[in-house]
Amino acid sequence: MRKTLNIAHRGLSGIYPENTMLAFKKALEIGCDGIEIDVQLTKDGYAVICHDEELDRTTTGTGLIKDYTLEELMKLDAGIKFGREFKGLKIPTLEEFLKYVSDKNTIINLEIKNSIIDYENIEKITYDLVKKYNLEKKVIISTFNHYSVRRCIRLDRTIKTGALYWDCIFEPYNYVQMLGANALHPQYNSVTREIVEKAHDNNLEVNVYTVNNKEDMKKMIDLGVDAIITNYPNVLKDLL
């Protein structure tokens, strides 16, 4: 039986403001196996970590990340909407995060957010930073944009890729193999024992998102998935 890995979704985001350096640091403190982050581009081409294309939900800004320069983004607060005690937290740059984890023993699931806005050159910008900090072996790149998965593979097929999907794709292990990715990244409700077993037969990983309920965590562990991506890695750690 494979060991199921514990991946902190946007850091320890059930307890701290998502996709902030504080949430990442707290995730590592509790001993998770890896961290999942979301990457987008600023108006002036910098890779930053934020889940939504729009700033409104998690920051004091409004509108789209792509319409702000990095300097303008740094003036926004990315903590206060989660709780007043988190006032002053900033949107991290991808470089800041990769530099921080470069000497840590952690897996990085780096989601490129380009299914709504197909940011020009985001794959190369991301890969250049991964290579700058020698993290090729610790990273898996995922995206809902499967054209982008192919672009990533063309850039460097030695860096692992995962195909994110939401619905019940027919024989996803065959599709992902055709795509050339290394892993299925399904919404957990669509996963069956057959899918996990057939994926493993084809040397593919199954990394499920976003599993926050204890019973669902137990079910995924029982199915033998390779990784569980969760807002509550502290809860999952106790189960594992």
TrEMBL record:
It comes from Clostridium weizhouense. Pfam families: GDPD. This is Glycerophosphodiester phosphodiesterase. Residues 4-240 form the GP-PDE domain. PANTHER family: GLYCEROPHOSPHODIESTER PHOSPHODIESTERASE, CYTOPLASMIC (PTHR46211:SF1), GLYCEROPHOSPHORYL DIESTER PHOSPHODIESTERASE (PTHR46211). It comes from the Bacteria. InterPro entries: GP_PDE_dom, PLC-like_Pdiesterase_TIM-brl.
